[in-house]
Amino acid sequence: MVGRNVRGAAERLEELHAPIRVCPRCRLCQTRTHAVPGIGTSRAEVVFVGEGPGRTEDREGRPFVGRAGQFLDEMLAAIGLRRGDVYITNIVKCRPTAGDPPYGNRAPRPDEISACAPWLEAQLAAIRPRLVCALGRVPTGYFLPGAKLSKVRGRLQHRGDLPVLPLFHPAVALYRQDKRAVLMSDFRKIVRILDDLRKRDR
Ligand code: URA
Predict the structure, then answer these.
(1) Which of 67, 85, 151, 169 is a plausible cystine mate for 136, CB 3.0–4.6 Å?
(2) pLDDT 10s digits, 22-55
(3) Number of domains, the chain
(4) Could you tell me if 89 and 133 are in contact, meaning their C-beta atoms sit under 8 angstroms apart?
(5) Atom of ligand 1 nearest to the CA of 91
Protein backbone atom coordinates (compact mmCIF):
# COMPACT_ATOMS: atom_id res chain seq x y z
CA MET A 1 0.00 0.00 0.00
CA VAL A 2 2.79 2.40 0.85
CA GLY A 3 5.04 3.95 -1.76
CA ARG A 4 5.68 7.54 -0.81
CA ASN A 5 9.11 7.55 -2.39
CA VAL A 6 7.92 6.37 -5.75
CA ARG A 7 9.27 8.78 -8.32
CA GLY A 8 6.56 10.45 -10.33
CA ALA A 9 3.88 10.52 -7.60
CA ALA A 10 4.11 14.32 -7.37
CA GLU A 11 3.83 14.63 -11.13
CA ARG A 12 0.91 12.21 -11.29
CA LEU A 13 -0.93 14.10 -8.55
CA GLU A 14 -0.23 17.47 -10.15
CA GLU A 15 -1.33 16.13 -13.56
CA LEU A 16 -4.73 15.28 -12.07
CA HIS A 17 -5.35 18.85 -10.95
CA ALA A 18 -5.67 20.37 -14.43
CA PRO A 19 -8.47 18.05 -15.68
CA ILE A 20 -10.26 18.28 -12.32
CA ARG A 21 -10.34 22.07 -12.69
CA VAL A 22 -12.25 21.78 -15.99
CA CYS A 23 -14.19 18.60 -15.20
CA PRO A 24 -17.63 18.44 -16.89
CA ARG A 25 -18.74 15.09 -15.36
CA CYS A 26 -21.72 16.31 -13.30
CA ARG A 27 -24.09 19.24 -12.84
CA LEU A 28 -21.88 20.85 -10.18
CA CYS A 29 -19.63 22.18 -12.94
CA GLN A 30 -22.43 24.56 -13.95
CA THR A 31 -22.51 26.45 -10.66
CA ARG A 32 -18.88 26.29 -9.55
CA THR A 33 -16.54 29.28 -9.51
CA HIS A 34 -13.50 27.04 -9.05
CA ALA A 35 -13.15 23.29 -8.75
CA VAL A 36 -11.12 22.34 -5.67
CA PRO A 37 -8.80 19.42 -6.49
CA GLY A 38 -6.91 19.23 -3.18
CA ILE A 39 -3.81 20.51 -1.45
CA GLY A 40 -0.72 19.03 0.14
CA THR A 41 2.07 16.63 -0.65
CA SER A 42 2.19 13.50 -2.77
CA ARG A 43 4.36 12.05 0.01
CA ALA A 44 1.55 12.31 2.57
CA GLU A 45 1.17 9.45 5.00
CA VAL A 46 -2.33 10.69 5.78
CA VAL A 47 -5.01 11.90 3.39
CA PHE A 48 -7.96 13.83 4.85
CA VAL A 49 -11.17 13.58 2.85
CA GLY A 50 -14.01 16.04 3.49
CA GLU A 51 -17.45 16.25 1.99
CA GLY A 52 -17.19 18.96 -0.64
CA PRO A 53 -16.10 22.57 -1.08
CA GLY A 54 -18.16 25.30 0.60
CA ARG A 55 -18.60 28.91 -0.47
CA THR A 56 -15.09 30.08 0.51
CA GLU A 57 -13.40 27.02 -1.01
CA ASP A 58 -15.35 27.54 -4.26
CA ARG A 59 -14.17 31.15 -4.35
CA GLU A 60 -10.52 30.31 -3.63
CA GLY A 61 -10.11 26.91 -5.28
CA ARG A 62 -8.51 25.42 -2.14
CA PRO A 63 -10.05 22.97 0.35
CA PHE A 64 -10.88 23.78 3.97
CA VAL A 65 -10.06 27.48 3.93
CA GLY A 66 -13.09 28.60 5.98
CA ARG A 67 -13.65 28.26 9.75
CA ALA A 68 -13.78 24.46 9.60
CA GLY A 69 -10.40 24.62 7.86
CA GLN A 70 -8.93 26.77 10.62
CA PHE A 71 -10.05 24.18 13.13
CA LEU A 72 -8.55 21.41 10.97
CA ASP A 73 -5.24 23.33 10.98
CA GLU A 74 -5.43 23.65 14.79
CA MET A 75 -5.97 19.91 15.17
CA LEU A 76 -3.11 19.16 12.77
CA ALA A 77 -0.84 21.45 14.79
CA ALA A 78 -1.88 19.68 18.00
CA ILE A 79 -0.43 16.44 16.60
CA GLY A 80 2.67 18.11 15.17
CA LEU A 81 1.57 18.29 11.53
CA ARG A 82 1.08 21.08 9.02
CA ARG A 83 -0.91 21.14 5.79
CA GLY A 84 2.30 20.60 3.87
CA ASP A 85 2.80 17.23 5.60
CA VAL A 86 -0.56 15.77 4.55
CA TYR A 87 -2.98 15.85 1.62
CA ILE A 88 -6.45 17.34 1.97
CA THR A 89 -9.26 16.81 -0.52
CA ASN A 90 -12.98 16.16 -0.73
CA ILE A 91 -15.37 13.49 -1.98
CA VAL A 92 -16.64 15.94 -4.63
CA LYS A 93 -14.36 18.57 -6.08
CA CYS A 94 -17.02 21.19 -6.88
CA ARG A 95 -19.31 22.94 -4.43
CA PRO A 96 -22.76 21.37 -4.06
CA THR A 97 -25.27 24.21 -3.91
CA ALA A 98 -28.97 24.35 -3.19
CA GLY A 99 -31.74 26.83 -3.85
CA ASP A 100 -31.67 30.11 -5.70
CA PRO A 101 -28.76 32.50 -5.75
CA PRO A 102 -26.81 33.21 -3.59
CA TYR A 103 -27.02 29.42 -3.05
CA GLY A 104 -26.52 27.59 0.23
CA ASN A 105 -24.28 24.55 0.74
CA ARG A 106 -25.75 21.07 0.60
CA ALA A 107 -24.46 17.51 0.83
CA PRO A 108 -23.34 15.95 -2.48
CA ARG A 109 -25.86 13.62 -4.14
CA PRO A 110 -25.08 9.97 -4.92
CA ASP A 111 -24.78 10.60 -8.68
CA GLU A 112 -22.37 13.50 -8.05
CA ILE A 113 -20.31 11.30 -5.74
CA SER A 114 -20.11 8.50 -8.33
CA ALA A 115 -19.20 10.94 -11.10
CA CYS A 116 -16.38 12.43 -9.01
CA ALA A 117 -15.10 9.20 -7.41
CA PRO A 118 -12.55 8.39 -10.17
CA TRP A 119 -10.70 11.62 -9.31
CA LEU A 120 -10.43 10.71 -5.64
CA GLU A 121 -9.39 7.16 -6.46
CA ALA A 122 -6.71 8.45 -8.84
CA GLN A 123 -5.42 10.81 -6.13
CA LEU A 124 -5.23 7.94 -3.64
CA ALA A 125 -3.51 5.73 -6.23
CA ALA A 126 -0.88 8.45 -6.80
CA ILE A 127 -0.25 9.15 -3.10
CA ARG A 128 -0.72 5.65 -1.69
CA PRO A 129 -1.22 6.93 1.87
CA ARG A 130 -0.87 4.79 4.96
CA LEU A 131 -4.13 6.18 6.33
CA VAL A 132 -7.24 7.96 5.07
CA CYS A 133 -9.19 10.09 7.55
CA ALA A 134 -12.83 10.37 6.51
CA LEU A 135 -14.18 13.69 7.79
CA GLY A 136 -17.89 13.23 8.48
CA ARG A 137 -20.83 11.17 7.33
CA VAL A 138 -20.45 11.49 3.55
CA PRO A 139 -16.81 10.35 3.21
CA THR A 140 -17.40 7.66 5.84
CA GLY A 141 -20.31 6.33 3.76
CA TYR A 142 -18.17 6.45 0.63
CA PHE A 143 -15.28 4.41 2.04
CA LEU A 144 -17.36 2.17 4.31
CA PRO A 145 -20.77 1.69 2.71
CA GLY A 146 -23.45 0.99 5.31
CA ALA A 147 -21.30 2.06 8.28
CA LYS A 148 -22.86 4.47 10.77
CA LEU A 149 -20.51 7.28 11.75
CA SER A 150 -21.79 7.18 15.34
CA LYS A 151 -20.69 3.51 15.56
CA VAL A 152 -17.32 3.64 13.80
CA ARG A 153 -15.92 7.12 14.57
CA GLY A 154 -12.50 7.11 16.17
CA ARG A 155 -11.97 3.41 15.41
CA LEU A 156 -9.69 2.20 12.65
CA GLN A 157 -11.58 0.53 9.80
CA HIS A 158 -10.46 -0.87 6.46
CA ARG A 159 -11.67 -0.66 2.88
CA GLY A 160 -9.85 -3.65 1.49
CA ASP A 161 -6.24 -3.00 2.46
CA LEU A 162 -6.74 0.75 2.85
CA PRO A 163 -6.88 1.83 6.51
CA VAL A 164 -9.67 4.36 7.09
CA LEU A 165 -10.27 6.36 10.27
CA PRO A 166 -13.77 7.89 10.38
CA LEU A 167 -13.96 11.19 12.26
CA PHE A 168 -16.57 13.88 12.88
CA HIS A 169 -16.47 16.69 10.35
CA PRO A 170 -14.61 19.75 11.72
CA ALA A 171 -17.60 22.00 10.85
CA VAL A 172 -19.81 20.08 13.30
CA ALA A 173 -17.29 20.76 16.03
CA LEU A 174 -17.66 24.51 15.45
CA TYR A 175 -21.15 24.61 16.93
CA ARG A 176 -21.12 21.52 19.19
CA GLN A 177 -18.62 21.79 22.06
CA ASP A 178 -19.18 18.15 23.05
CA LYS A 179 -18.33 16.97 19.52
CA ARG A 180 -15.33 19.28 19.39
CA ALA A 181 -13.79 17.46 22.37
CA VAL A 182 -14.57 14.04 20.86
CA LEU A 183 -13.07 15.05 17.51
CA MET A 184 -9.91 16.40 19.16
CA SER A 185 -9.49 13.20 21.15
CA ASP A 186 -10.12 11.00 18.06
CA PHE A 187 -7.70 13.16 16.09
CA ARG A 188 -4.92 12.48 18.60
CA LYS A 189 -5.32 8.75 17.85
CA ILE A 190 -3.85 9.41 14.39
CA VAL A 191 -0.35 9.53 15.92
CA ARG A 192 -0.57 6.05 17.44
CA ILE A 193 -2.41 4.56 14.46
CA LEU A 194 0.28 5.85 12.08
CA ASP A 195 2.97 4.46 14.34
CA ASP A 196 1.32 1.04 14.31
CA LEU A 197 0.84 1.15 10.53
CA ARG A 198 4.51 2.11 10.02
CA LYS A 199 5.61 -0.89 12.09
CA ARG A 200 3.29 -3.16 10.12
CA ASP A 201 4.54 -1.86 6.76
CA ARG A 202 8.22 -2.05 7.73
N1 URA B 1 -16.04 21.31 4.25
C2 URA B 1 -15.60 20.27 3.51
O3 URA B 1 -16.07 19.15 3.65
N4 URA B 1 -14.65 20.50 2.63
C5 URA B 1 -14.09 21.68 2.45
O6 URA B 1 -13.21 21.80 1.62
C7 URA B 1 -14.56 22.75 3.26
C8 URA B 1 -15.53 22.54 4.14
Answers:
(1) 169
(2) 999 999 999 999 999 999 999 999 999 999 999 9
(3) 1
(4) no
(5) 3
